[in-house]
Amino acid sequence: MKVAILSRNKNLYSTRRLKEAGEAMGHDVDIIDTLHCYMDITSSRPAVRYHGKELPEYDAVIPRIGASVTFYGTAVARQFEMMGTFNINESVAISRSRDKLRSLQLLSRKGIGLPRTGFASKSDNVKDLIKNVGGAPVVIKLLEGTQGIGVVLADTAKSAEAIIEAFMGLKANILVQEFIKEAGGADIRCLVVGGKVVAAMKRQGAEGEFRSNLHRGGSAEVVKLTKEERETAVNAAKVMGLNLCGVDLLRSQNGPMVMEVNSSPGLEGIEKATGKDVASMVFQFLEKNAKPHSTKTRGKG
Questions:
Q1: Where is the ATP-grasp domain (predicted)?
Q2: Residue 9: φ, ψ to 5°
Q3: Which of 45, 5, 17 is nearest to 268 (CA)?
């Protein structure tokens, strides 16, 4: 197969591993900088151009689109879909996953376990907003935040009110969620490929840190999932329409709860923690599923 990886940095671990794994399996793999692509949209034969030349036809594309370039990145992915290229994560699904509020609403509608979550526009709703998610402590999240940035734990109702009102004063969109104390500052990252959990790790936040992100000093170790946790991760990926994603779960007294579904999950932490060759599993999925014009939305979403 001829495969394109959409990535802004060819030296990133995940990008490198995907290219190495694909080439080791006999595939022709190109890394394409998403922002250097430009599109021929008006033509009856849609095309993607790159550094002054039209890109060749690819059998599949793997989008590694950062949150900061979601709009342009999904436009490029959608153009490939219009050309009939198989996209492991369709543009519509990526856009859906990047909208935290929409994601939670979709997961909630399908009965997926979630922390109690509130969303409001006006500061006169703040007290009831906090009360409705179970009261302090609460977690306050910027809708546009990534990698733990813009996530604050408010221990008391007074501090929660002050933080929420400050964010609202800046016209920032925020979510207010119940704090799952029994999780103990840990979460579980499930890597889902083609409707199966292929690897899972437990991430533990550094001492005094409730966020478990590895780049914030957290640690990771292999974890054995329960049947319910596995099913929750698979169902969350299905609801979002993603063939490749990371599903972050919290272990609560009410069962597994989904924090987030990540459409461009990093491979470094989970491959090192579990010893599994996730990159090769991605190409095994493509070998079985990458057929021309098989993208469901075909660029219409």
A1: 104-287
A2: -140, 110
A3: 17
Tell me if 235 is assigned to a ligand binding site.
no
Please check if 213 is assigned to a binding site.
yes
Give 37: exposed, middle or buried? Use CB within 10 Å, 0-12, 13-18, 19+. Answer: buried
Q: Is 144 annotated as a binding residue?
A: no
Which segments within the chain are labelled E, that is strand? 2-6, 28-32, 37-40, 47-50, 53-54, 60-63, 86-87, 117-118, 138-142, 151-154, 174-178, 186-193, 196-204, 219-222, 244-252, 255-262
Q: Does domain 2-96 have CATH number 3.40.1160.10?
A: no
| pLDDT averages per 10-residue partition of the chain, 301 residues | 96 97 98 95 86 94 94 96 95 93 94 92 83 91 70 91 88 88 89 97 73 60 95 97 96 94 95 96 97 64 44
Query: Any known ligand binding at 178?
Result: yes
In the structure encoding, which two tokens stand for residue 250, read together?
């919290």
| CATH entry 3.30.360.10 includes domain 182-285 | no
- The reply, when asked if residue 298 is annotated as ligand binding, is no
